[in-house]
Queue: 2 jobs
Job 1
Amino acid sequence: MSTESDDLRARLRALERAARPLEPGATRRRELRRATVASTERFLRHIATARAYDDVPDPGIGLLESPVTEHGMALPDLIERFEREVVKPGGNPASAGYLAYIPGGGLYHSALGDFLAAVSDKYAGIFFAGPGAVRLENQLLRWAADLVGYPAGAAGNIASGGSIANLAAVVTARDAHGLRGADYARAVVYGTGQAHHSLPKALRIAGLAEATVREVALDEHYRMRADALAAAIAADRAAGLRPWLVLAAAGSTDTGAVDPLADIADVAQRQGCWLHVDAAYGGFFLLTAYGRALMRGIERADSVVLDPHKGLFLPYGAGMVLVRDGALLAAAHSYTGNYMQDAADARAEASPADLSPELSKHFRGPRLWLPLMLLGVAPFRAALEEKLLLAQYFHREVQALGFAVGPEPDLSVVTYRWAPRGVPLEEQNRLNQRIVEGVRHDGRVFISSTMLDGRFTLRLAVLAFRSHLRIIDRTLQVLQEQLAALD
Ligand SMILES: *Cc1c(COP(=O)(O)O)cnc(C)c1O
């Protein structure tokens, strides 16, 4: 062998040694695992009584004290920093008292599913490369499609969240209707003022910022009025516009209202519009008999979005898009590449890469598969039924404290406000703002607010799997204390 080869071999061996920390041995793995698990156990030990919001000054700033270095830091120091600067400040979506916005979850079994996925690092983008990984995700998507009531030809994708899932649906609707650039200015989208902002955002990203978005009138329960939708579409058609997309909500973010899906499906079908149902928040209430009845007609939607990181209590990072005619989802996301030629003939099973913008991706399946297979559906169903009843309970009890309430909750969001008689609206709004800020500062529970009809309104969203009767009672107590502090 030449001296050059010898030099090269010596250099390679030196680099291999220098890169060795990348492959910890069994003993080191045990140390790392123990320290990491110990931190999560510290977190979970007090989760039932943990603060739901921690209002610390300049949160997370301590992270900047230690930049990335050449040779790293000790794990205990890093974990200590992570707990102090990341876990502690701000909202705690894993806590029972997180009742703001749309709560998340943090199901423990999902963390273990992520661990399995990450260590084996199976490639879940293409069937050829990771057949089991792709089948696992497709099996979950089929389960969700059955829940919605979709036929065998449906297809879907487990995306990172509802926003990306909504984007995939919008792009699919655009291509399915053959909309081209020249058509955008005439295209009309129908939604309500209660549509989630990820939908106008998706329209803009999809190139459709020029399309007209019509705000369809709401009924007194903040649900879309199907008669107003029909009238708006007819008027636009008469004016030479191109009615295209109807955006309905199965659980709006603000009030949890479920639009009358069957009536809306009638209108959309008659008018040849694509019907998308944003069920990111409410979709998994289909697991309950009540939810099934309320969302009747969802199976007639062309596309549906459901968020497992909301309604199935997963940690953040899982949203599902389902399209009734799966070929249309594929058509909107198809691609080719010379470097993909080995995989081209292995498409008997639909691959995520053919149904989404992603190629290499987080193998998200196991974070849902493990808890669902391990526990079965029953505990999820029970938890969702519990959330529905907790919302009803709060709706009743908060009135007993003297709050004015919005409509009976469709799902698990309750709107309410402090509206003492004889106090002008501006002053009422200020009082409600003081209440929401006071509750956040207190930190035992975390609620949020919104504007409804120009009124500063408080929201309670019950969806965290750890939220039970006692935290709702505690919320009522915290609110009562806030009222006492107003005088
Ligand atoms: C949360 C939510 C979204 C956005 O989903 P992300 O997972 O947060 O991206 C869209 N629509 C509705 C109704 C939602 O509640």
Job 2
Amino acid sequence: MDKVQVRSLSAICVTIVALVMLAFYNWTVIQDQIFYTVVSLQETHQPGSGARYVEQPKTAQELIQRLRNTTRSIGLGTTYGMNMSATELEDWQAANPCLSRSELIPMYAERKVAKSLPPNPVWDELFAEYSRYHRVCTKSIRDPKGYFVKKDDSSPCKFLVADVAFGTGLGNKMFTLASGILYAIMTQRVLLVPTTNLVPEFTCEPFPGSSWRLDPETFPTPPEQFVTGDGSWILDAEFSDRVDRAMKREPKVNGTSLGPLAYAVGVTRHEWQPKGRFYCDTEQRAYSQSIWMYTSGCIYTIPKLFAIPSFRPVLEGLFPDRMAMTRVVRSLLLPDNTVWDRVRRIHHVYLSGADRQLGLQVRYRDGREMYNKMNDVVNKRITDCALENGLLPRLTSELNSKLLAATNTSAPNPVVKVFIASLFPGVHESLSKLYVLKPTVSGEDVGLVQITQDETQEFSLEADRQAFTEVILLSLSDHLMVTPMSTFGGLAQSFGALTPWFIDYRSESSTSCERSPTVEVCNQFSIKEYSCPHDSDVNGQRIDQVVDYIKDCPVIDHDLGIQLITDFES
Ligand SMILES: Nc1nc2c(ncn2[C@@H]2O[C@H](COP(=O)(O)OP(=O)(O)O)[C@@H](O)[C@H]2O)c(=O)[nH]1
Ligand SMILES: *[C@@H]1O[C@H](CO)[C@@H](O)[C@H](O)[C@H]1NC(C)=O
Ligand SMILES: *[C@@H]1O[C@H](CO)[C@@H](O)[C@H](O)[C@H]1NC(C)=O
Ligand SMILES: *[C@@H]1O[C@H](CO)[C@@H](O)[C@H](O)[C@H]1NC(C)=O
Ligand SMILES: *[C@@H]1O[C@H](CO)[C@@H](O)[C@H](O)[C@H]1NC(C)=O
């Protein structure tokens, strides 16, 4: 990891912490080396039923069926059963209230211009079945820590601890976790989320009768960044070595019978996401025989899951429109009641009743200095973009003739509400100067709303809650204009199922903005070729040449990444 990379990546995910991490980097490497020599001594262990190799399902229905079979095999005849009783469910819902689960989707449907995403019954069925699996597995092993420490593998259930790199903002957290969530579902692993990353503190518990919360104070997670971890985990380098050695011993087995290579594997990071070899069939076959996995980082990687050949049939069946992120966040990452209460109040007083809502997300990642330098040019581009694309009405210097002529106007002017999310006041001031002083040609009245302007990015539960509130309010827009590379705006786009316009932030540019080719966001800093030494059918090939709906991200957004092209546009 050289300095240039650290700087450019820190601009994306870990704004402040990266410098501290650089200082600790050498220390971490030393830790890892000590750790590897310890774990190599215990390479063999006897597999239980959870560690048996099973091929990836070929269809979404087969995945659902497998989850159901596992749930049945461990749930039937137990006190907790396969399903919860109605009273159990009511009690759980009373203890884990989540108003947004029933109230958010109808608000998207009420938008007057934006299209609603049609329902996806296969995804809903999978989510329900996975929730049941989660509950029954969690009940059956009782205590995740005890199960882990004993290296137990008597249950057919497997587990994923899905974490997020320390010190990241809301958007990066949610995209990273969403990637872990979809991976857990695809690989039939019980999803557990360390509460230190705070996501379980501002989202709803997603699985009825169960909990995804993992207390990292008591649960032994692997060594992460500069935090000391537990040595029971095999990390990437050692895992790849074991795969290589096993494949050398039996080159013909094609990964199918590698046998369990490790009880617990921590997927360490390269550029804040799993390394290229993670996205290979041979490695995935090997991972599938480990009982525990741990992932972390700060980058969205769902596009790369679509690149894994053995995952693709199920993912294509589940998301024929590729609206994967929207389904995941709307089912599993909903705002808890504290956040939802803010959304409802602010929406009610400032945004409801509009004929159209425009969302504007304006981010100056490097803070005040960048703001001072770019505020004028960014504001001009926002206005130009809004006018060129009909997102805001044009101004006139003449007074509204209709208003003046009529002494009794029965029909009030249509209202366009602009919700602005920014750490700075610049764009609100700039638009106020236009729309407060002058009427519009169309006779539409334009209202501007910005609820915070904190200037600096904070790292706290309160900062995440407020950021999430503003993301949801942005997502309720009919049209959305966002800052390139920003996962904050990207999260609003995913919740709202919106195809955004990227404001042009390049200093030398003659365009004001550009429409995104997709609702999906960019998998930033992604390696664009398969690096799968044991899968000669794809190794070295460009992913976009193997999978036709995966493309380079647009240059205006982020030129070092790939993304899914959606069949839905709004
Ligand atoms: N409330 C609020 N917070 C913001 C805004 N812009 C940035 N932030 C803060 O800065 C963080 C930005 O990190 P992140 O969401 O990962 O977005 P990214 O860095 O642009 O990809 C957020 O989580 C907030 O804490 C904003 O418009 N409103
Ligand atoms: C589920 O179990 C049934 C009955 O035991 C079996 O016929 C079926 O093949 C299993 N399905 C899958 C996908 O494992
Ligand atoms: C559990 O609930 C599912 C979905 O409602 C149903 O199909 C299944 O038959 C139930 N199983 C048992 C054992 O009650
Ligand atoms: C590897 O195994 C898979 C799954 O059984 C099979 O579909 C594929 O054809 C095999 N590839 C080779 C090169 O043997
Ligand atoms: C204004 O017009 C509306 C509808 O045309 C009518 O119902 C109302 O009585 C009028 N009000 C006045 C004060 O003239």
